[in-house]
Amino acid sequence: MTDPAPKGFEAHDHNSCVSAALAAADAACAARGLQFTPVRRRTLEILLESHEALGAYDVLARLNTEGLGSKPPVAYRALAFLVEQGFVHRIERLNAFVACAHPDQEHDPAFMICRGCGTVAEAQAVQGGLAVSAQTTGFQIEQTVIEAEGLCPTCQAPAA
Amino acid sequence: MTDPAPKGFEAHDHNSCVSAALAAADAACAARGLQFTPVRRRTLEILLESHEALGAYDVLARLNTEGLGSKPPVAYRALAFLVEQGFVHRIERLNAFVACAHPDQEHDPAFMICRGCGTVAEAQAVQGGLAVSAQTTGFQIEQTVIEAEGLCPTCQAPAA
DNA sequence: GGTTGATATGTTATACTATAACACTTCGTG
DNA sequence: CACGAAGTGTTATAGTATAACATATCAACC
After folding, report:
1. Which of A57, A102, B47, B156 lies at a CB distance of 3.0 to 4.6 Å from B99, suitable for a disulfide?
2. Contact flag A112-B133 (C-beta cutoff 8 Å)
């Protein structure tokens, strides 16, 4: 591994961040009676290694170099499992996936996507505009997608 | 045209809704010195006719039956133009497009997507969780994607 | 021990979504 | 009338995703 990537937009102890997330996923699977198989584990690990969002085919390419699967369904199935279990989030805007920053808590995630460096930071959603509109129209919300695109603090500097 | 589709989730005068939106687009193009060509006009009309989100290839199929273009770039270019001008919004969750419900005002749109009937209602976004997170991290928001999936009032009934 | 069923992976093929690149037309302007 | 800008037509291809079926593994049960 090279330099630790930023999480959120700040430096952090990336090694412990990765191992903590893997341990949390491991424990959650055990508690739920689910299998945390090598493909699933490695897929999560690949996403944890960078805090950028990776496309399914990027993940697949890395799995492939390690002999863990070379065909799209392998990657898509592992990603679907991880998303279902809340260890990974899908970024609709990018058709990509990113490791969850808070796998231990239930949450409606929101994301800030830097168009400069590609880093994706996870925030806690607050349901802003939608909660009100949903209530007045009687719409029953089951899932939300909240994503903002823009520039992170680091990438704002060059523009100035 | 058959029954008017719901806008938001309520019945409305669909004919006037369509013609008003077309007139608004026409006026906006004139004001901005842009061409509201037959392909562009008909593409917007197709989206206005239903308040469901249509995929680019659905739009293309309908353009094709009318001799207005049969190849993907035709539809994608018209849709890109309409999105740029704010007459149409892209629904990331569905890889689909929907006519704007308020083409006259600047707005950050938010959407409620019914997984029962496919209707997409547009609401005004309020930037909920993201504004706070963005400010504390220094992230500069340029665009937001806010989409909720769930059940509209009508589609909640059968489930009960 | 063998059978059965559940879960996961491997593989083929294909569907769906999107854009690059280039040719042609149209039209306004100098 | 030459030129350039904008739009459309077309070919080809890139990128994203899933259906369907084959194989493997393993636990539970008889």
Report:
1. B47
2. yes
Calculate the angstrom distance between C1' of D18 and CA of A78: 14
B72 Cβ contacts chain C strand, under 7 Å: yes
Contact list, A151 vs chain B (CB under 8 Å): 139-140, 142
* CA dist list (Å): A49 to A90, A137, B99: 16, 42, 40
Residue B73 CB in 7 A reach of strand C: yes
Of A121, A125, A152, the CB nearest to B129: A125
What does each of the 160 residues of chain B score in pLDDT, given as a tens digit? 444 445 677 777 888 889 999 999 999 999 999 999 999 999 999 999 987 899 999 999 999 999 999 999 999 999 999 999 999 999 999 999 999 988 888 888 999 999 988 999 999 877 666 888 888 999 999 999 999 999 999 999 876 5
Return all residues near B4 (Cβ < 8 A) that are at least 6 apart: B11, B12, B13, B14, B15, B17
Nucleotide C21: nearest residue by CA–C1'? B73
Using a CB-CB distance cutoff of 8 angstroms, which residues of chain A are in contact with residue B121? Answer: 133, 137, 139
The domain A14-159 is placed in CATH, from the list 1.10.10.10, 3.40.50.300, 3.10.450.50, 3.40.50.2300, at: 1.10.10.10
Task: Please state the pTM of the whole predicted model.
Answer: 0.91
Per-residue CA distances from A6 to A19, A95, A150, A154, B9 (Å): 16, 21, 16, 11, 42
